[in-house]
Write a structure and sequence with these properties.
- The chain is α/β, with parallel strands linked by helices and 197 residues long.
- It contains eight helices and seven strands.
- The strands form two sheets. It has a five-stranded parallel sheet with strand order 2-5-1-6-7.
- Helix 1 crosses helix 2.
- The longest helix has 19 residues.
- The chain is globular, with a radius of gyration of 17 Å.
- The two termini are 14 Å apart.
């Protein structure tokens, strides 16, 4: 078992019947969030713990709401990529008590959304992974947050070759938004654990 998954596994308490423990796995783009969450989910399931995983990239808005809006590119990525208020009310606010959630699942190939009904066991660990998870609107919903820390050059090297060709997009859109997040929300300081990845 790798150290990062062990830290997370040890942070999750034995669940009381009818309770949920909400874990946020935060980190900048390509920091390894999805891989860590997949391994953690497997470990929990091997221990007969029910797990519900939410990937925030599944809930982004349509392209016309986040590109060419008249705002700077970094602003579009940080503030418009998700409908922050809608997700606060229809996802985060319902995680603890609702038995099912009806959420718009984004399909990048068609740039459209399909409503999906997600059934959640009464007793489970809920894992949410994505960038900017500790923004002020969402921070209060988690029981535990881990922040995956990974240098920008390493994260960029994990991008596809075609993605790396568009360096200006990273400079103007992604990296400026990430810098804003780190500066305004201090995710490494706010998190319960910082994991080097």
């Amino acid at each position: 078992m790798e150290e990062n998954e062990l830290v997370l596994l040890n942070a999750i308490p034995a669940l009381v019947e009818g309770s949920r423990f909400i874990v946020g796995v935060d980190g900048l783009s390509r920091s390894g969030k999805t891989t860590v969450v997949k391994k953690l989910s497997q470990l929990l399931q091997e221990r007969n713990v029910h797990v519900c995983v939410f990937h925030m990239d599944d809930y982004i808005v349509s392209r016309n709401k986040r590109y060419n809006t008249g705002h700077e590119e970094w602003h579009e990525y940080y503030n418009l990529q998700w409908d922050v208020d809608w997700l606060s009310h229809h996802l985060f606010n319902k995680l603890r008590e609702f038995g099912s959630l009806n959420l718009p699942f984004y399909d990048p190939e068609t740039d459209s959304h399909n409503m999906q009904n997600i059934v959640m066991p009464d007793t489970c660990v809920v894992i949410i992974e994505g960038v900017f998870l500790q923004r002020k609107e969402w921070r209060g919903f988690y029981d535990y947050v881990a922040y995956l820390d990974c240098p920008q050059n390493m994260r960029f090297a994990r991008e596809s070759i075609s993605a790396r060709q568009n360096l200006e997009k990273f400079r103007n859109r992604y990296w400026k938004a990430e810098d804003y997040y780190v500066r305004t929300e201090a995710p490494a300081k706010q998190a319960d654990a910082v994991l080097n990845n």
